[in-house]
UniProtKB/TrEMBL annotation, chain A:
Family as reported in the entry's similarity comment: Belongs to the complex I 30 kDa subunit family.
Feature: compositional bias, Basic and acidic residues: 1-22
Highest taxon, organism lineage: Bacteria
UniProt-recorded name of the protein: NADH-quinone oxidoreductase subunit C
Enzyme nomenclature, EC number: 7.1.1.-
Topology term for the membrane: Peripheral membrane protein
Catalyzed reactions per annotation: a quinone + NADH + 5 H(+)(in) = a quinol + NAD(+) + 4 H(+)(out)
Gene: nuoC
From TrEMBL, chain B:
Protein name per its UniProtKB record: NADH-quinone oxidoreductase subunit I
Membership in a protein family: Belongs to the complex I 23 kDa subunit family.
Domain 4Fe-4S ferredoxin-type: 37-66, 79-108
Species: Seinonella peptonophila
UniProt-listed Pfam families: Fer4_7 (PF12838)
Automatic annotation (TrEMBL), chain C:
Phylogenetic lineage: Bacteria, Bacillati, Bacillota, Bacilli, Bacillales
UniProt keyword annotation of Iron present: no
TM spans (from-to): none
UniProt EC number: 7.1.1.-
The protein's name: NADH-quinone oxidoreductase subunit D
Entry similarity comment: Belongs to the complex I 49 kDa subunit family.
């Protein structure tokens, strides 16, 4: 970023050249910044639902349970909660059992390497209420551990194994946490951003 | 008895129907025009813009350009152009981005050889692969300053 | 009482009935399966990792190779995710072409399933019929996009090619032909006493269990739950078409067969309607920026692929390459229930139950 700024200051007149040569790179950079500020004027229609959800969760589990909550404007206005790891196991069983939620269907479960920390993302669906939410749980990078939800949603079994396999997140309480896609003796976790491939190709 | 006649009737009916099998190795299969086969490369049209190399998902194209011998011609001309058919997946993206239709698809699909080395096709080979060339090639989805053509 | 010894049997990874490279380690006691452990990963190519180094157009050919029996839906889920993030408008004609190709692909995929499934449980001729019809669809695709299986047809903002001259008429002919063929299939298989006896009441599971294991597609609908994402969460232009969602009642293999065959009929209906209202003119590729930079954020989209809910979770950091791309592969999720279904079953039912789940190993291993 700083390099970018310096360039702009230094070479005001050679800017034209720059724009031609490195295929609009400098020109396209500021664009996301503009877009980021654009959404707030029109709040999502789902905003009240989110507030209601957050209120219900805090009532049951306390203030610390939810670290952050927002409506994902990019992804079809999906309600998104960032849940504290220590409260996740309790919240998970509540999300499944509570009568006004009943998120019985685990659509997807993905691990993301955010460089400073890991994230496990659950997409839950309620077949009763035809309602979908997304839950993020942040995991420490040095000690990647998170309670397993296999006993709540058996469907999470292979998803968690896959995340363990590719990102190296330990799911405590998982019945059979082994590598699933990679060979058992594989070293390293391929989907981590700092992963160095072992093979140099044929 | 009736079942036998019925079954034989079906057999006879199928006997007069047109053949559904091909005599493939003896007679080459005819592919539709849009078929994505081995590329044909036209060195004269190439402007060394490197777009095909950049879009290739498997990095199977390598090319080098040189300064033109003719001082009147601006820009580079192609020097070497190679496609590695060991890893080429014939996905059609190179022909799609080529602004001058220098690399186009043909209907040839036979790539089986006895040696892997034969799968490195150089510019000479590719420019002689000039039969059964596909008619519609660059589809310019993205607006381009130099002669946006629509196939 | 016959005394039997427990034995470990390895099914696959090279076994014709596992439809690819699935390996199942089965512990059997005589003829009864005590425990079955699927071992997967033989076809793992790291698509998700590779995608992190490719831009969005380049990923599309890679998705062809996931579920290679219905590559169109893979193509579609990726471009759908990118389009959702970019909030792009898709030209009408492109949407129609997408629906037509998606549904034709669904028919082709179900025909492959039907043919190979009956082959698995011992009927040879339906396979030949099914592949003959599927071949017609593949020829149509070959003409449309130049490949029979790896289509690489969808693009962000539309589709690559417009339909060639006379293609739509050919699709129409195919539809009429296929509607007649469906009657043949029903005559050949649906009422077949041997087939019914082999599949009725085998591999049964409850609706509750299906939900617990997050089954999707025909595997879920067979238990009576009417969940089809084309109806429930319409994407593309599926809300414009009239079609039913066939469900089963017993949750057994025969119902799965009926479900899938009825889905083929519904797909034929959708294609028919799409052809009837196909826009005369128009672009097939919308206006998209030259370099696709997806705004920072994430999204999860899911579509109804022939095998179930095919999802795509995309995390972007504002670059032209995805930060993280995760596919929710229906085959992968559906396969999880296999050990549960096999426990206590007869060895001879292994292939029947496995085939009923309808997996494609390219997708399981990704």
């Amino acid at each position: 970023m700083t390099e970018e700024n310096n360039k702009e200051e230094k070479t005001a007149q050679s800017k034209e050249d720059q724009e031609k040569k490195p295929v609009q790179r400098p020109a396209a950079r500021p664009r996301p910044r503009v877009k980021k500020e654009a959404p707030p004027p029109e709040p999502s229609p789902k905003e009240p639902l989110l507030a209601e959800l957050v209120q219900q969760v805090t009532e049951k589990l306390g203030e610390q349970a939810i670290e952050e909550s927002y409506v994902n404007q990019n992804g079809e206005h999906l309600l998104t909660l960032v849940v504290n790891r220590d409260h996740w196991a309790k919240l998970a069983s509540l999300l499944k059992q509570e009568a006004n939620w009943q998120y019985t269907y685990l659509q997807n479960c993905a691990g993301v390497d955010q460089q400073t920390y890991f994230e496990v993302v659950y997409h839950l669906y309620s077949l009763e209420h035809h309602d979908q939410i997304c839950v993020h749980v942040k995991v420490d990078r040095d000690q990647p551990e998170i309670p397993s939800v296999v006993n709540i949603w058996p469907a999470a079994n292979w998803h968690e194994r896959e995340i363990y396999d590719l990102l190296g997140i330990q799911f405590t309480g998982h019945p059979n946490l082994q590598r699933i896609l990679m060979p058992d003796e594989w070293e390293g976790y391929p989907l981590r951003k700092d992963y160095q491939p072992l093979d140099e190709g044929v | 008895m009736f079942g036998l006649v019925k079954g034989l009737g079906l057999t006879l009916k199928n006997m007069v129907k047109p053949r559904v099998t091909y005599k493939y190795p003896h007679e080459p299969l005819e592919m539709p025009n849009r078929f994505r086969g081995i590329q044909y490369f036209i060195p004269e049209l190439c402007i060394v813009c490197n777009q095909c190399v950049r879009i290739c998902p498997t990095d199977c194209i390598t090319l080098t350009g040189k300064k033109s011998d003719d001082p009147n011609v601006k820009g580079k001309v192609i020097d070497t152009y190679e496609i590695n058919f060991e890893i080429c997946i014939l996905c059609d993206l190179c022909t799609e981005v080529c602004p001058t239709e220098a690399v186009v698809m043909t209907n040839h699909y036979e790539l089986a050889t006895y040696s892997r080395d034969d799968l490195y096709k150089d510019m000479e080979w590719l420019s002689q692969n000039n039969t059964l060339v596909r008619k519609e090639n660059t589809l310019h989805p993205l607006p381009k300053k130099t002669g946006a053509k629509k196939a | 009482m016959l005394r039997t010894e427990e034995m470990l049997l390895n099914v696959g990874p090279q076994h014709p009935s596992t439809h690819g490279v699935l390996r199942i380690v089965v512990k059997i006691d005589g003829e009864v399966i005590r425990e079955a452990t699927p071992v997967i990963g033989y076809l793992h190519r790291g698509t998700e990792k590779l995608a992190e180094d490719l831009n969005y157009t380049q990923i599309i050919p890679y998705t062809d190779r996931m579920d290679y029996v219905s590559a169109m839906s893979n193509n579609y889920v990726l471009v759908h995710a990118v389009e959702t993030m970019l909030k792009l408008e898709i030209p009408e004609r492109a949407e129609y072409l997408r629906v037509i190709t998606l549904e034709l692909n669904r028919i082709a995929s179900h025909l492959v399933w039907m043919g190979t499934y009956l082959l698995d449980i011992g009927a040879l001729s339906p396979f030949l019929y099914a592949f003959q019809d599927r071949e017609k669809i593949l020829d149509l695709f070959n003409e449309l996009c130049g490949a029979r299986l790896t289509y690489n047809y969808m693009r962000v903002g539309g589709v690559k090619w417009d339909a060639p001259n006379g293609w739509l008429q050919k699709v129409e002919q195919f539809i009429t032909m296929m509607e007649k063929r469906m009657k043949d299939y029903h005559q050949l298989i649906t009422g077949n006493e041997i087939f019914i006896q082999r599949t009725r009441g085998v591999g049964v599971y409850s609706q509750e269990m299906a939900i617990q294991y997050a089954l999707s597609g025909a595997n879920l609908r067979v238990t009576g739950l009417q969940r089809d994402l084309r109806k429930e969460h319409p994407y593309s232009i599926y809300d414009r078409f009239q079609f039913d969602v066939p469900v089963g009642r017993h949750g057994d293999l025969y119902d799965k067969y009926l479900c899938r065959m009825n889905e083929v009929e519904e797909s034929l209906k959708i294609v028919g309607q799409a052809l009837a209202s196909f826009p005369e003119k128009g672009r097939v590729l919308g206006k998209v920026p030259r370099v696709l930079r997806v705004p920072e954020g994430e999204c999860y989209v899911s579509i109804e692929s022939p095998r179930g809910e095919l999802g795509c979770y995309l995390v972007s950091k504002g670059k032209d390459k995805p930060w993280r791309l995760k596919f929710r592969r229906p085959s992968f999720c559906n396969l999880q229930i296999l050990p549960v279904l096999l426990r206590g079953e007869n060895m001879a039912n292994l292939v029947a139950i496995l085939g009923g789940i309808d997996i494609v190993l390219g997708e399981v291993d990704c």
